[in-house]
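User: I'm putting together notes for a lab meeting next week and I want to include a structural view of one of the chains we've been expressing. I don't have a solved structure, so I'd like a prediction I can at least talk through. The sequence is below, exactly as it appears in our construct file.
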Amino acid sequence: MEENKQELRVIDINDIIKKLWAGKILYFKVLPVVFVLACIFILGFPRTYSTSIRLAPEMGGSSMGGTLGSLASSFGIDLESMQTSDAITPLLYPDLIDDNGFIGGIFKIHVTSKDGSIDTDYYDYLVKNQKSIIWLKPYNWVKNQIKKLKKRGQDSGNGEFNPYSMTRLEDEIAIRARSNIKIDFDKKTAVINIEVKDQDALICKTIGDSVMNHLQRFITDYRTSKARNDYEYYSALTDQARKEYEAAVAEYSKMADANSRVALKSVQMKLEAYENDIDIKLNAYTTVNAQMVAAKAKIQERTPAFTVIKGASVPVKPSKPKRMVFVALMLILGFCFTSLYILSEK
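Assistant: Thanks for the context. Below is the predicted structure for the 346-residue chain, given as structure tokens.
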């Protein structure tokens, strides 16, 4: 019984092969057409390049290592970030890209294309120098004309860029910039991963470095904000205490010079009162000056160190679209559909 089933299967396979071979002419007609159409279609898409950066920031809070920390890390839980006193933990760093102030700072970055034909800032580059899909150019042209008609008669403001009061165009460019930038935080390794894509290889690297620098600056400013506020506060108190001390010394000197030959008890008591006032103001000045120095040292202590594990590099090959893969996939689909058509015929 099993031998008969095997014979039937062999016969079926042979029939299929014979039927496909009999329709081989159709393959010679269909596959070249599929190949040409796939090439024309995929060539209409602009090429994009991508680069990645791996950045390890110094973590805030006390260290919680050992077996417990390792075990929690294996489950994707970062105990150090959970116990830090910072309101913004590293887990929230990827959300910074949603802030208009953060993305607005990248707009001002000066960019130059690899061939030197583009030399402008990133905002103008996104507005004027982006290649679109060839097949969508008529649609984009009509869309731009409609936008121009809607803009007529509308005041765009004083011309100054405000990231928290964007125009419609600025908001669209911000969305486009966010789509080119991805920030991710690995909870297990505590490493920040930054990925940037762009239509030009050199601009891709430039924006990658800029995003990393902006992120480092934001983290540093946040981590040191309280210490800097304390330093400014104690610095103002120190200046005030120093002026009061100098004024007390000047007043004492004036009093002492005017009564240098006077031996009255009242004068001596007044001079002693001035001396006591000088001592009080000197102690106050010394105290706040020490607090100012401590606050200044706290700024350095709170300033995080960053280790660049993998820096941005100029990509050699485009990342998208995968033209050969797309064409090969279309040929496989063309072959499959042609085979089904041949087999469906009686």
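A couple of points you could mention at the meeting. The longest strand covers residues 49-57. The chain has a mean pLDDT of 80.

User: Perfect, that's what I needed.
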